[in-house]
Amino acid sequence: MVSKSACGRYPDCPHCHSGHTVRWGTARGVPRYRCKSCKHTFNVLTNTPLAHLRYKKRWLTYLGTMVEKKGIRESAAACSVSVATSSRWHRRFLDCSSSQRIKILGTIIGTSSTQALVSLSETAANAELSCWRELLLVILSWI
Ligand SMILES: [Zn+2]
After folding, report:
1. Å from CA of 108 to ligand 1 middle
2. CB within 8 Å of 25: residues ≥ 6 apart
């Protein structure tokens, strides 16, 4: 029998690597999954350097400042987080492997596009478009 994750629909379990996973709601804006083999729940950030970090909606801005090679303090100011948080994020983002980066960007885009659906006016749509342009630049430089 072919499981859904074998078709690429759901990620494999990061705990036991089983492909028998199902969608299990959402936790803090990120899709959650449950493994039918070991019964653990997880999201794409489980077992990555970014697991348990907060303020996901500011990660994209943060990545942008990293791409621009801004200092820890400047990045902190741009994202309205403390210097300690900024320096922790800097280390964690650098620690991500390239396959983790791709999964994480997917999550960040998922979080951002929910906001895009809310804005319907033309001005907002244009702002959204330039935001996506910036986003693509960030993605291309980070991967
Ligand atoms: Zn499992």
Report:
1. 24
2. 32
State the burial class of residue 7 (Cβ atoms within 10 Å of its Cβ: 0-12, 13-18, 19+): exposed
- Spell out the domain ranges in the chain: 1-43, 49-142
Distance 37 CA to ligand 1 centre (A): 5
What DSSP element (H or E) covers 136? helix 122-142
The CA 124 to ligand 1 mean position distance, Å, reads 42
Q: Give 17 Cα–ligand 1 centroid separation in angstroms.
A: 6
Write out the H or E segment, with its range, that includes residue 33.
strand 30-35
User: Which CA distances in Å does 64 have to 35, 48, 58?
Assistant: 34, 20, 10
pLDDT tens figures, 28-65: 777 899 999 999 999 888 888 888 888 887 888 888 88
Q: How far is the CA of 48 from the centre of ligand 1 (A)?
A: 16
At residue 24, φ and ψ (nearest 5 deg) are -135, 60
